[in-house]
Design brief:
The protein has 259 residues and is α+β, with helices and mostly antiparallel strands. It has six helices and five strands. The protein has a domain of 101 residues. The longest helix is centred in the N-terminal third of the chain and has 19 residues.
């Protein structure tokens, strides 16, 4: 038997959290409906929009519960908040949905369950059976199957090189002599100065960065065709007509017609 569970929340944020939790707990997306935040938008409506908006809310709750004082309470709260509707096929699932809505802050409607069976018995005694058919829908999702991670890091290694370095040294020697000065020495007999500079070689280090290898990471895409096979269910209705039976030569005045 189909059941509809309705929860009214103060704002759309609370309603969205409840809706997300319903999906996390196994309810299908097409079983959960969430309305806009009526309260925050109501002031922006003109008179025509307000009437259309109020009529829509009234029609929704009247279709579920009929018209009574409790339904009026639902309508009033729905105009000031956001509504989550959950459609289920069993009372157990409806109860689970109700517990989730309560847990996430649905407004307490004085303990009113908010359920309505879609199998109705009319005043004329007729009954209706819903004919349900599952639709087969196939989509795609991306699943991670592996990958490559490439990291670079800086390391240091010792290197060495040998070379010969020169160092100059200036020496001054004074040798005692005793001889007669020559004519040339007499011509240069004047004040003078001699300078000589020492040098030494030092190692000069220079480093040059050179690219020795390039790492390229890329991927290619393969496409494949896959056939998905599944079974879908639908309601099949058999109608058997039973006719009145005769017992021997007498008519049974209590014969019944079964539907």
């Amino acid at each position: 038997m189909s059941q509809t569970v309705v929860g009214i929340f103060n704002n759309l944020k609370e309603a969205q959290k409840a809706s997300d939790n319903l999906l996390d707990n196994g309810f299908a997306r097409n079983q959960v409906d969430i309305s806009e935040d009526y309260g925050s938008n109501y002031s922006t409506y003109n008179d025509t929009d307000r009437k259309s908006h109020d009529d829509g809310i009234s029609g929704f709750f009247d279709s579920l519960f009929g018209s009574d004082d409790k339904v009026d309470n639902y309508k009033t709260n729905a105009r000031n908040g956001s509504t989550v509707s959950v459609h289920t096929q069993s009372m157990d699932r409806a109860e689970k949905a109700r517990n989730i809505l309560d847990e996430y802050g649905a407004i307490d409607m004085e303990g009113d369950a908010g359920y309505r069976s879609t199998e109705n018995t009319n005043t004329d005694g007729s009954k209706s059976i819903p004919v349900i058919e599952e639709e087969f829908q196939v989509g795609k999702r991306k699943v991670e199957t592996g990958g490559v991670s490439v990291r670079s890091r800086i390391i240091e290694r010792p290197v060495e090189e040998s070379l010969r370095l020169r160092t100059e040294h200036v020496h001054v020697e004074r040798n005692p002599v005793d001889r007669k000065a020559t004519a040339a020495e007499l011509d240069n007999f004047a004040e003078g100065e001699i300078e000589m500079t020492e040098h030494r070689e030092e190692a000069v280090v220079n480093k040059e960065a050179r690219v020795t290898e390039e790492i390229n990471v890329s991927k290619d895409v393969d496409q494949r065709k896959e056939t998905i096979r599944e079974e879908v269910r639908e309601t099949e209705v058999d109608v058997d007509e039973t006719s009145a039976k005769r017992t021997d030569a007498k008519h049974d005045s209590n014969a019944k017609r079964t539907i």
